[in-house]
Amino acid sequence: MIDLGISKLALIGAVALVVIGPEKLPRVARTVGTLLGKAQRYISDVKAEVNRSMALDELKRMKETVEDAAKDVNQTLRDNAADFEKSWAESSGDSSAAVDFSPVPEYRHPKKHWRLKQGAVPNWYKARNGVRTKALSGAARVARYRPTSFK
User: Fold this and answer.
1) Is the pTM of this model over 0.70?
2) What Pfam families does the record tag this protein with (predicted)?
3) CA 136 – CA 151 distance, rounded (Å)
């Protein structure tokens, strides 16, 4: 890289002052600064694009290796399943036996029949734990639970 020290920069500045002149030197310096800034931005954009393309190529390679591994696992599972079905058919004596892989039943929430479950709880347990057995209106609830000093 170019090694520019203070003495070399001073020499370049003195030559530019003599060659260009003091009137045009600030305008030329601004122009050179803007051109250098544009060049630096262009170089950084090129570097970023190269890095992105390298990362993309690496991701593509990684994707291909994962897909190949998945294909290998899938093929191995198919081979093992075929061997298992063959050995199962041979051991059961039925050559037309096939393994039935029915789908798993759909999940059902356990509180589906909560009224039935609530009815199975004894009344003495409900009374002890404060479970409401009858619906009360708001006014009836206030009257029932009003402190005795306000009645």
Assistant:
1) no
2) TatA_B_E (PF02416)
3) 19
Q: For residues 60 and 68, what is the distance between their CA atoms, to the nearest angstrom? A: 12
Query: 2: part of which helix (H) or strand (E)?
Result: none
CA distance 3 to 11: 14
In the chain, what are the domain boundaries? 6-92, 112-150
User: Look-up: residue for tokens 């899938």?
Assistant: 74
Contact 48, 57 (CB under 8 A): no
Positive or negative torsion for Cα 67, 72, 76, 78: positive
14-72 confidence digits (pLDDT tens): 888 888 888 888 898 899 899 999 999 999 999 999 999 999 999 999 999 999 999 99
Q: Render the burial of 132-148: b for 16+ CB within 10 Å, e for the rest.
A: eeeeeeeeeeeeeeeee
Structure tokens at 32: 């050179």
Contacts of 136 (CB under 8 A, 6+ apart): 144
